[in-house]
Specification:
Largest sheet of chain B: 6 strands, antiparallel
Largest interface: A-B, 17 and 12 residues
CATH superfamily of the largest domain in chain A: Probable tRNA modification gtpase trme, domain 1
Structural class of chain A: alpha+beta
Number of strands of chain B: 9
Number of helices of chain A: 7
Distance between the termini of chain B: 20 Å
CATH topology of the largest domain in chain A: Gyrase A, domain 2
Helix content of chain A: 10-25%
Strand order of the largest sheet of chain B: 1-2-3-9-8-5
Strand content of chain A: 25-35%
Mean pLDDT of chain B: 95
Number of domains of chain B: 1
CATH superfamily of chain B: RNA polymerase II/Efflux pump adaptor protein, barrel-sandwich hybrid domain
Number of helices of chain B: 4
Low-confidence stretches of chain A: none
CATH class of the largest domain in chain A: Alpha Beta
Strand content of chain B: 25-35%
Order of helices and strands of chain B: EEEHEEEEEHHEH
Oligomer: heterodimer
């Protein structure tokens, strides 16, 4: 168990590699109750979220979700998040554990509307969250829910009964596999956890911890706030232009991002794999054109692709698929090569191993 | 149970001495703490090691750990299997997962190391690592 964002969390149960491979080939169950939840309701809830986030909230149908970012004026993220629309005037946002209080206070501070128009609540204490991820997730979940999973598409959610408990069920996740995230009252945590593990026995479901959560998201090239994202990094630099909607109207940071489109990026996020022996780790320096000019934001051995991989910021002029770079590993420059992202993409046809 | 024929350091290395040749590895406790080991960096044959100085690293998915030489000496062998199969250090840390062999300069350097019994007591005492 380790401290993470103010919570005691398991790094691993049976081992990071075993858990990672289980998620890629069968299914894993994560306790992600440390994540934060913020509720925004009222006739101007949509307007507020359009102003504060990068993505176009108005495109969301009821029970649809989108990956987005809460924005600073300089075009960087306060946090990345998933916005779920639960009603015309009702939104439920999942945010990072370490940023929950900061995000909530930021929304309150930036909110130009009054309480009759928008109510913002930090409801994190009212929700536990579990994530069931892997190709066998739907088969397992279908045994313990009344929800019609064949009709629940990726990045959609619904209210459902799961494991005898009312939950918000979302087809979302942080692993790059098919999967679900469940939000429900903390008092029901143990029941949901145990029921899912029992239901998944035949499929080989095992619990998975923070270690595997990190290696899985890294293979899928999903950013982690504090690494690929921070207050000093714009969404364009982080390859998140796709969650910026410049046509929706004004939003915090829009001008800065438009300006950067004109002037060019200061740095670029690239993926790399090690060519010579060595593991790149978070924070290691990166050398391009024989100069120390970049930094690894996330690096690790990747258990499914079985390579040492990483993400790094380098000068935009040095970013090119196939081009070499060097990672400084404990004083030694070790050769690596830029590769396309993501490192892993789930195959279209189902692969289920028992 | 920790092998009686080994001696142990506070940093969780083991050393087995036969005459003036010593084999060195990390203990079962160390491999458990590290988790899945994915990379081992060892010195070249011929390298000169000094007691208590780092001679390489053992890396797991989540951590990088320096390995310290219990004694001073010259590296005469490096385990050829652990480079390509680092998981051997997890599965057999006291046997197949050995790391290096050295020629010792001074046998008395082992005098202060722990016996198996002392090491087990050290572990039970909730030693910091």
């Amino acid at each position: 168990m380790v401290e993470f964002g103010g919570w005691e969390m398991p790094v691993e149960y049976s081992g990071i590699i075993e858990e990672h491979l289980a998620v890629r080939t069968r299914a894993g169950l994560f306790d992600v109750s440390h994540m934060g939840e913020i509720e925004v309701r009222g006739p101007l809830a949509l307007a507020l979220l359009q102003y504060l986030t990068s993505n176009d909230v108005s495109r969301l149908k009821i029970y649809q979700a989108q990956y987005s970012a809460l924005m600073y004026p300089q075009g960087s993220a306060v946090d990345d998040c998933v916005v779920h629309r639960l009603g015309d005037d009702h939104f439920f946002i999942c945010v990072n554990a370490a940023n929950t209080d900061n995000d909530f206070e930021y929304i309150i501070r930036q909110n130009p509307y009054d309480a009759s128009e928008v109510q913002v609540r930090n409801v994190s204490a009212e929700y536990s969250q579990l994530a069931l991820q892997g190709p066998a997730s739907a088969a397992i979940l279908s045994k313990v829910t009344d929800a019609k999973l064949t009709e629940l598409k990726y990045y959609w959610c619904c209210s459902a009964r799961c494991c005898g408990v009312n939950v918000l069920l979302a087809r979302t996740g942080y692993t790059g596999e098919d999967g679900f995230e469940f939000y429900f009252p903390p008092s029901e945590s143990e029941k949901v956890w145990r029921t899912l593990l029992d239901a998944g026995q035949a499929e080989g479901l095992i619990p998975a911890g923070l270690g595997a959560r990190n290696t899985l998201r890294l293979e899928a090239a999903y950013p982690l706030y504090g690494h690929e994202l921070d207050a000093e990094t714009t969404l364009l630099e982080a390859n998140l232009g796709w969650i910026c909607n410049f046509e929706k109207g004004s939003f915090i940071g829009r001008d800065a991002l438009m300006g950067q489109k004109q002037q060019g990026l200061r740095k670029k996020l690239v993926g790399f794999e090690m060519v010579e022996r060595g593991i790149a780790r978070d924070g290691y320096s990166v050398w391009t054109e024989s100069q120390r000019r970049g930094r690894v934001t996330s690096g690790s051995y990747a258990p499914y692709v079985k390579k040492n991989i990483g993400l790094a910021y380098i000068p935009p002029e040095d970013a090119e698929l196939g081009r070499n770079l060097e990672v400084e590993i404990r004083g030694k420059r070790v050769l690596a090569r830029q590769v396309a992202l993501p490192f892993y993409k789930r195959p279209r046809s189902p692969k289920i191993n028992h | 149970m920790y092998p009686e024929e080994f001696l142990y350091t506070q940093d969780h290395e083991w050393i087995r001495v036969d005459g003036n040749i010593a084999s060195v590895g990390i203990t079962d406790h160390a491999q458990k703490e590290l988790g899945d080991i994915v990379f081992v960096e060892l010195p070249q044959v011929g390298a000169h090691l000094t007691a208590k100085e780092s001679f390489g690293t053992v890396e797991s998915v989540k951590a990088v750990a320096d390995i310290y030489s219990p004694v001073t000496g010259e590296v005469i062998a490096v385990n050829p299997k652990v480079q390509n199969a680092p998981e051997l250090v997890n599965s057999d840390p006291h046997g197949e997962g050995w790391l290096i062999q050295l020629e010792l300069k001074d046998r008395s350097e082992t005098d202060h190391l722990m016996t198996a019994e002392e090491y087990e007591a050290y572990l039970k005492g909730g030693a910091a690592h």
